[in-house]
Design brief:
Layout (H helix, E strand, L loop, with lengths): L5 H8 L4 E2 L2 E9 L5 E7 L4 E5 H5 L20 H18 L21 H18 L5 E5 L11 E5 H5 L7 E4 L2 E4 H8 L3 H9 L5 H4 L13
Antiparallel strand pairs: 1-2, 2-3, 3-4, 5-6, 7-8
The structure holds zinc ion.
Length: 223
Amino acid sequence: MNKINHRHIKAIQSIGKTFNYLTVQKIIGSNKNRNMVVECLCVCGKKKKCTLYSLKIGDTKSCGCKKGKFSHIIIDKVSRRFYTVFNAMRSRVTNKNHKSYKIYGKRGIKLLWNNFESFHNDMYKSYLKHLSLHKNERTTIERIDVNKHYCKENCRWATDTEQGANRTNNRYLTINKQTKVFQTWCNEMNINRHKVTDRIDKLHWTPEEALGLTPRIRKPKKT
Ligand SMILES: [Zn+2]
């Protein structure tokens, strides 16, 4: 396929997304009916090729196993959503086709949960608790130290609002003559915004230091 068309772009945007028990991993191309064919990873671990269309309308829900060995823990809407959190996380660190791979997997960030079951054992209770406290908000997984891996000790749940609640929302930073929204800098450097805010506001680091663009230089104390 040489020509990138609208359908192809849509298909690329679907990489990392989960439809029922299948998570899109890569684009194969278009078939004779001009439907985009994608390769997915099923919850059971098997690969499955199908059209993006059949995924979206729910014609294809799994590799054929339905939900395989996780049928006891993927039982309803909430647990399925929890599974998509796991899959999205796994895609960011292992799937080179994922749009965020370069700031996760490529930077050496690993997923220390070997499988969905162990992630479920460690995080499902706290996930439910977070959901019940923040009913209508999207609960996302956040790493406490962004240079460390995805594991129980380094992960916590957050809502979009929690992440965006502080006043850095509309803050701009200019570094090397480039002005960008604060959050954009944080995303690009894969650094938690709270950490950067604290470094700038409380510790009085320069923006470059706070974002990890230059090493922190300790200034002698003024007398
Ligand atoms: Zn399967």
